[in-house]
Amino acid sequence: MSHVALAAILLLLAALGYTMGRRRATALSGGQARRLHSLPSYHGLYVALWCALPAAAVLAVWLVAEPQIIAVLLMPSLPPGSAGLTDGAFQLLLGDIESFAAGRAPEAGTDPAVIAAARRLSELRQSGFILLALAAIALGAGGIGWSRSRIRPGLRARNAVERATIVIMIAASTVAILTTVGIVMSLLFESARFFAQVPFSDFLFGLQWSPQTALREDQVGSSGAFGAVPIFAGTFIITLIAMAVAVPIGLMAAVYMSEYAGKRARAIAKPALEMLAGIPTVVYGFIAAIMVGPALRDAGEWVGLDVASESALAAGLVMGVMIIPFVSSLSDDVMNAVPQTLRDGSYAIGATKSETIVRVVFPAALPGIIGAVLLAVSRAVGETMIVVMAAGLAANLTANPLQAVTTVTVQIVTLLVGDQEFDSPKTLAAFALGLVLFAVTLATNVIALRVVRRYREQYE
Amino acid sequence: MNQPIAFTLKPTSAPAVAVDSPPKMSARGVDVFYGEKQALFDVDIDIHRNRVTALIGPSGCGKSTFIRCLNRMNDVIADARVRGSITLDGQDIHDPGLDVVSLRARVGMVFQKPNPFPKSVYENVAYGPRIHGLAASRGELDDIVRASLERAGLWGEVAERLNEPGTSLSGGQQQRLCIARAIAVDPEVILMDEPCSALDPIATARIEELIDELRLNFAIVIVTHSMQQAARVSQHTAFFHLGKLVEQGPTEQIFTSPRDERTQGYVTGRFG
Q1: Cβ distance of A348 and B101 shorter than 8 Å
Q2: Does residue A345 sit at the B interface (CB-CB below 8 Å)?
Q3: Which among A50, A223, A349, B94 would be 20 to 30 A from B186, CA to CA?
Q4: Which of these, B104, B180, B175, B106, lies nearest to B145 by C-alpha position?
Q5: Does A138 share its domain with A229?
Q6: Contact list, A341 vs chain B (CB under 8 Å)
Q7: Pair A243, A150 in one domain
Q8: Residue A347 contacts B where some CB pair is shorter than 8 Å
Q9: Residues of A numbered 246-285 whose beta carbons fall under 8 angstroms of chain B's beta carbons: which are they?
């Protein structure tokens, strides 16, 4: 019997509780639901919740606390002398016990005390689980019995169920919030470790990025410079190129769709444009790396320019295409939300369609359009796959879009991919970069959402 | 509710309409279709200078549809079709040689809900003169804006607030701003589609006074739901019912001795 089976049993029990509660309420009402404060189904849910929630709570607590409890109980049966072991050796011993308990065959020369401890661990786990199962089922059944006995025609089952639902919804939103908090915390703490080894100002203002740290004293070429300016500059150039592509194309597409396109053209064009957003970014990545990059290099050769085959331009162009729908779709929505009465007012003075768009619709929609552009910026800054494949790894500090540059996201990927030690500045630098990235995208998102909200207030 | 509603005709301050002067606008045999549905049947009416023409009738009777024909605002609606002839100073407004832009510069419109642009008070009024190139310099534009606001009776209230957004004014002020915006391009006809329906009685009285003043310089057509308003501000009244122009004539006659029993029923409040 496993945890899954236990959960299934509890669910069945809750379903049973639902039917019982419902039956009882119906019986009490004498077939007239109006005599009840709440509908019979609410009484059913009331019983089911009383069955499932306490049991689920016990289950959750156990899942979190089990390792600690078992470890404490295991202590007495550990081989003698293990209390004096160093931390690392102690972890090793526990690992051994764990793997024997999981079924590894004992080898000749294994300490019998370890085998005994492993057996003890299995026993503890098993009895722990049986206890848990009994407790959970007993709680569930008890919950059914108790709540069923409370059913009266006047019981405010609906209010109780609605309150419980609210609590469940709060718990659900807490998960999202806690995840964000957790991620920010881990970024902060790991970055703090990084900044303990590399000064903050060196990181933020240094012009040299070469994150290879020396493993030995005499190693050559691994200076370990963590000046992130070239990376920020690369990110900035690529974002700029992407916005230079996406903003004009996206806005014109949006103006066409919201102001000029007929119903049918709009019904086809809008989903088609939005489909661009559904293409996996890795596909854009290889289009940039295999087609656009080399094509730009060849074109550059043809006019006598030296273009790197992995250039900021190639990555930026493709990324720009990718974020067109972010700009166009949102801008289209806000322009559509501009009231028709404003357009009528402009037409009635004798303005043409294009004058109306430029002088009335566009200014009225401007805050929303700015919001759309800022969301696209934060998307471009955080985009990873295209730049990993097409922008290159060299941390050049250059404003020339024809050269290879690198971005924050690319560096994070390369710093963490492969076998790495997780306490060297090299890997910790990834967290510091992540923190900067997070701060930038968070700031643009917050500004964008605020601007959009202010606009909404104006017209609803 | 069967006795005629009380109303008074104010002594006319404006010159009497010269009956033999040619009409400013004139509609003959106007039909309007929205898709397959016919909304207006064979409407004949003349619009004269220095006169307020009121279009009354129950909801959905076609009076708003008709007023929107006069400056071709129905062009904006995708599946609307207009048949028949409408002339402005004898020229057909559907003539391909007549640009709809210049038509709308000559026939201005004020809408049911005040719809100032999301710009400053000044820019709202300057909008029309700018797009039609009426002012050669900033000074001239300033003069036009000031004159328009004065004629709309709003200058005193907004002289110090020209740079505030038009949407920050009160509802009645916004509507007068829209009137100022319409007269800034110096039109010949002003169409008003229920201009007071979103306003309180005091703001309404203000607009009605203004309409009476504007009559000195413009031909005015007003759609209204309020029979008292039609009686108060208009000299000529046309009663629409189910897409047809049932009866028209001097306002006093329509309200005191209507010839058609549907008109009689409507103005005495039996239906509508």
Answers
A1: no
A2: yes
A3: B94
A4: B180
A5: no
A6: 111, 113, 115
A7: no
A8: yes
A9: 262-263
Give Cα A252 distance to the centre of its chain.
Answer: 32
Q: Is residue A191 part of a domain?
A: no
Compare all CA atoms of chain B with the CA of A358 and give the residue at the minimum distance. Answer: B131
A102 CB burial (10 A radius; 0-12, 13-18, 19+): exposed
The answer to whether residue A178 is domain-embedded is no
Residue A227 corresponds to which tokens in the numbers above?
Answer: 């000046």
Q: What is the pLDDT along chain A (460 residues), one digit of tens a residue?
A: 577 888 899 999 999 999 999 999 888 887 787 888 888 899 999 999 999 999 999 988 988 888 888 888 887 777 776 767 777 777 788 888 888 887 777 776 777 778 888 888 888 888 888 999 999 999 999 999 999 998 888 888 899 999 999 999 999 999 999 999 999 999 999 899 889 888 888 888 888 888 776 666 666 555 678 888 888 998 999 999 999 999 999 999 999 998 888 888 888 888 888 888 889 989 999 899 899 988 998 998 888 888 888 888 999 999 999 999 999 998 998 899 888 899 999 999 989 999 999 999 988 888 889 888 988 998 898 888 888 888 878 788 888 888 888 888 888 888 888 777 777 788 888 889 999 989 988 898 888 888 777 766 555 4
Do A146 and A216 fall within a single domain?
no
Cβ-contact A435, A191 below 8 angstroms: yes
3 state DSSP class of B36: coil
Among B127, B179, B190, most A C-beta atoms within 10 A, so best to mutate, is: B127
CB contacts of B105 in chain A (<8 Å) are 349-350
| Interface A-B: count of C-beta contacts within 8 A | 69
A319 and A427 housed in the same domain:
yes
Q: Where are the domains of chain B?
A: 25-116+190-267
Q: Tell me, yes or no, if B216 comes closer than 8 A to chain A by beta carbon.
A: no
Any residues with CB less than 8 A from the CB of A275 and at least 6 apart, and which? A325
> In chain A, how many domains are there?
2
State whether A351 and B181 contact (CB < 8 Å): no
Angle between helices A312-337 and A229-255 (to 10 degrees): 40
- CB-CB neighbors (< 8 A) of B76 in chain A: 343-344, 347
Domain boundary pick from A109, A133, A155: A155
| Environment class of A445 (CB within 10 Å of its CB; exposed 0-12, middle 13-18, buried 19+) | middle
Asked if residue A61 and residue A130 are part of one domain, the reply reads yes
Q: Are strands B52-56 and B236-241 parallel, antiparallel or unpaired?
A: parallel
Search chain A and give the residue with CA nearest B112.
Answer: A341
Residues A113 and A224 both lie in one domain:
no
Q: Contacts of residue B132 in chain A, CB cutoff 8 Å?
A: 350
3-state secondary structure (DSSP) of residue A251: helix
What is the nearest CA distance from A350 to chain B, expressed in angstroms?
Answer: 4
- CATH 3.40.50.300 is right for the domain spanning B25-116+190-267: yes
Q: Are residues A243 and A341 in the same domain?
A: yes
Of B71, B103, B115, which is closest to A342 when you measure between CB atoms? B115
Same domain, A51 and A135: yes
Residue A301 burial (10 A CB sphere; 0-12, 13-18, 19+): exposed
- ipTM > 0.90 (yes/no): no
